[in-house]
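Sequence in, structure out. Go.
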Amino acid sequence: MKFAGLMGAALFALATLTGCATQQQEEASSKVVYHVNDSSVARAAMNNVRNHKAAEPDAKIVVVTHGKGIDFLLNDAKDAKGEPYTAQIAGLKDMGVDFRVCANTLKGRNLDNNAVILDATVVPSGVAEIGRLQAKEGYVYVKP
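Output:
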């Protein structure tokens, strides 16, 4: 009987420790918001994000854009060399990266939500979204 009791206690301890380790691993995943307010750095920013995901596949990454930063997330957007952004954006979306576009910027430029690619989500305010992610969801801030 003593052996069975000790064995049960050992199994319980092992299960508890395993559960703690799993929880710590889940908590160890980074949550990062990349801030883009100038599309001239969009390629570099997306390269940073791709490298980040390669180094830390479980990282939760959100790219928030406003001002001139939304341009690469508009329909048919191309970089300075005439290359479309769509393939790079789609690849990052497949890796779990979220792209968000500021509605205030759209409104200020007389654009509606249909001007934005399907892989991006329109949020009421880009800067408010960055603040919310940091203050309420524990995201860290990166400015490429």
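Check: Residues 2-28 form the longest helix (27 residues). The CA atoms of residues 79 and 85 lie 7 Å apart.
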